[in-house]
Amino acid sequence: MAGIIAPSILSADVTKLGDDVTLVEKAGAKYLHIDLMDGSFVPSMAYGPAWVKQLRPMTNLFLDVHLMAVHPENHVEALAEAGADLIGVHVEATPHIHRVLQMIKKAGVKAEVVINPGTPVSAIVPVLSMVDQVLVMTVNPGFGGQAFLPEMVDKIKELMVYKKELGLDFDIEVDGGINNETAKLTADAGANVFVAGSYVYDKKDPAAKVQTLLEVTK
User: Fold this and answer.
1) CB 211 within 8 A of CB 194
2) pLDDT at 47 exceeding the cut of 90
3) 3-state percent breakdown (helix, strand, coil) of the chain, nearest 5
4) pLDDT class for 15, splitting at 50, 70, 90?
5) Can you give the pTM of this predicted structure?
6) What is the pLDDT, as a whole number, of residue 158?
7) How far apart are CA 101 and CA 96, in angstroms?
8) Angle between the N-to-C axes of helices 180-189 and 206-216, in degrees from 0 to 180, rounded to the nearest 10
């Protein structure tokens, strides 16, 4: 079975966002990745719950919301009401990761825990049983177009060990520097959800890029 492709709208053309979303949906993408950045947890600022609300009626794609913000608990309710299907929260962004994940689940939304490149997998083991998905950042968050960090492949393999040993059933998502080569590399390690921004929306042929990713992640 092919992986789940999650094009990132951070790299789409905001002047024709609806067209760009429809294009990847028709090409076989199942998720739409939405980066929300507060300018504090990461240097950049981008989007907010209003974007999720506007995107919701545009598409039937699963809205995969990646929240890069301090005090993520302050945004859970608004994102759930806006139409997010999943909310991803960085373990580094709050001392209360367990509480925030509880809030997400209580809001009726799928929960994801996210780890930065410098964070060990051991930091999230206590909450693995709570989540539907784990996002392994394969670049440092905050900017698009960065080069993939190959050492993150070992984190995916480590997560697969915990998943098996603990009898858990969570998806493993990767985000950062994902292209046809790195998607194959991470799929072989155990990832099954692939965020791709600049690789897909490079102005050449986004639909073909989605189809390539589907092929290499089978």
Assistant:
1) no
2) no
3) 45, 20, 35
4) confident
5) 0.96
6) 98
7) 9
8) 30
Span 16-32, mean pLDDT? 94
Q: What band does 45 get if pLDDT is binned at 50, 70 and 90?
A: confident
**Token pair 């964070």: residue:** 119
CA gyration radius for the chain?
16
- Contact call for residues 214 and 33 (beta carbons, < 8 A): no
Query: Which pairing describes strands 171-175 and 193-196: parallel, antiparallel, or unpaired?
Result: parallel
CA angle 4–6–7, rounded 5-degree value = 145
| Residues designated catalytic | 35, 175
User: Over 47-59, what HEC string results?
Assistant: CCHHHHHHHHHHC
Contact between 31 and 60 (Cβ < 8 Å): no
